[in-house]
């Protein structure tokens, strides 16, 4: 696990986890990705992090049909980097996804590491525990692509709690299952403040960060998995005295109109 410090310097911050775009797959929504990029570009409080699977990266030995892949993994990397070019100055860091790791396993080439290098953000490997220096104090964030292969809605959200066994951070982010939302219930933990000689309480906010993948067709349809459509999060962090207020709104593709909307 790698650690990194960033100085933001403001008391307000909007964090956009970018994950599971799966560029190269027929089910990847270019409209959705374009909307998210433009929203970040026009948001003065925006910072984004890359959490893996920008490309579909199907290989002959992996899941998926390599012959249905629209462009090669190399072109997937180049296209994803071009999409992020207008907002690369707002990127914080990147981590590895399971799809990019297919290329590493087959060819010994780190797809996600190359991608992060191409767009000029630090690559932290499997996961990152980072400190974001805001106006008065530091805010902690942990990001991991996720590893659970849950199918049910409850299983997907429960998977968001897995990092709590490993880390303590103000904000914990995972993905991989393509679900999107807060991992509920929020767990509150007691600890002994030896200086104040009293019991205090703390908690983490946990989110599962969605995808740009429309699973109404393709592999999910074939396996009869529940359909999920493109959704991402805008996570709002606000400094309130000695605490942080954390909340999230959703960016999603409307099934009724086909437009990308924000809650």
Question: Which properties best describe this structure?
Answer:
single chain; 263 residues; alpha/beta; Purple Acid Phosphatase, chain A, domain 2; six-stranded mixed β-sheet; 6 helices; globular
Number of folding domains? Answer: 1
Report the portion of residues in β strands: 25-35%
Q: Give the end-to-end Cα distance, rounded to a whole number of Å.
A: 34 Å
The overall average pLDDT, rounded, is 94
CATH architecture: 4-Layer Sandwich
Quick one: CATH superfamily? Metallo-dependent phosphatases
- The number of distinct β-strands equals 14
CATH class: Alpha Beta
Q: Level of helix content? A: 10-25%
Shape: globular
DSSP helical segment count: 6
The major pleated sheet works out as:
6 strands, mixed
Could you explain the architecture of this structure?
The protein is of the alpha/beta class. The chain has one domain: Metallo-dependent phosphatases (Purple Acid Phosphatase, chain A, domain 2), CATH 3.60.21.10. 21% of the residues lie in helices and 32% in strands. It has 6 helices and 14 strands. It has helices at 30-41, 73-84, 98-107, 111-119, 153-159, 219-222, and strands at 2-7, 12-18, 46-50, 91-94, 127-133, 138-144, 171-174, 180-182, 188-193, 198-203, 205-209, 231-240, 243-253, 260-262. The strands form 3 sheets. Strands 1-5-6-7-11-8 form a 6-stranded mixed β-sheet, covered by helices on one side. The chain has a 6-stranded mixed β-sheet with strand order 4-3-2-12-13-14, covered by helices on one side. It has a two-stranded antiparallel ribbon with strand order 9-10. Helix 2 runs parallel beside helix 4. The longest helix has 12 residues, at 30-41. The radius of gyration is 18 Å and the shape is globular. The mean pLDDT is 94.
């Amino acid at each position: 696990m790698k650690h990194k410090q960033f100085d933001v310097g403001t008391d307000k911050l909007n964090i956009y986890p970018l994950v599971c775009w799966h560029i190269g797959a027929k089910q990847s929504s270019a409209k959705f990705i374009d909307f998210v990029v433009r929203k970040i570009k026009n948001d003065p409080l925006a910072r984004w992090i890359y959490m893996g699977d920008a490309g579909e990266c199907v290989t002959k030995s992996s899941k998926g049909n390599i012959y249905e892949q629209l462009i090669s993994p190399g072109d997937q990397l180049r296209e994803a980097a071009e999409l992020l070019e207008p907002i690369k100055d707002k990127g914080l860091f990147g981590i590895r996804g399971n799809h990019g790791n297919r290329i590493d396993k087959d060819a010994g080439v780190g797809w996600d590491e190359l991608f992060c290098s191409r767009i000029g953000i630090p690559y932290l490997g499997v996961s990152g525990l980072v400190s974001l220096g805001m106006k008065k104090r530091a805010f902690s964030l942990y990001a991991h692509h996720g590893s659970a292969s849950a199918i049910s809605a409850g299983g997907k959200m429960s998977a968001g709690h897995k990092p709590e066994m490993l880390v303590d951070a103000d904000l914990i982010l995972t993905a991989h299952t393509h679900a999107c939302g807060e991992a509920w219930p929020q767990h509150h933990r007691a600890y002994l403040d030896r200086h104040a000689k009293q019991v205090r309480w703390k908690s983490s906010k946990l989110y599962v960060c969605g995808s740009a993948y429309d699973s109404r067709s393709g592999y999910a349809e074939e396996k009869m998995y529940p359909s999920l459509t493109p959704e991402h999060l805008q996570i709002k962090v606000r400094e309130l005295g000695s605490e942080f207020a954390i909340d999230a709104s959703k960016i999603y593709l409307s099934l009724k109109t086909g437009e990308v909307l924000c809650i």
